[in-house]
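Task 17 of the worksheet. Students: predict the tertiary structure of the chain below and write it out as structure tokens. Keep your answer in the requested format; marks are given for formatting as well as content.
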Amino acid sequence: MTKNSRVIHSTRGYAMKFGQVQKRMAENCCFVWVIYGETFRDATILEAANMRKEQAKLAEPLPFAEIPGLIYQPSASSLASTRQRFPLIRQAHEFAAAQ
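Model answer:
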């Protein structure tokens, strides 16, 4: 089946490209095939929830977002560059307020 062939929504009657339907199924779990490669329909809420649950099981576990006890402290150069922008930001606010 080519990605640019047209498939038809069985309920609403509009056509989409096969590749678009496949992509939406993979990313959003919003469509279900009625006849593979010919017609599709919207997934019910329960079907979509089950498909998303299966996707979550297949996905790799995420690493820890934080390391316990570790506190982020920005570098001195980062703080200095941010502080250099403060006067420009203040001038922009004063200009906007004067308008």
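Marker's comment: Residues 17 and 87 are 53 Å apart (CA to CA). The radius of gyration is 25 Å.
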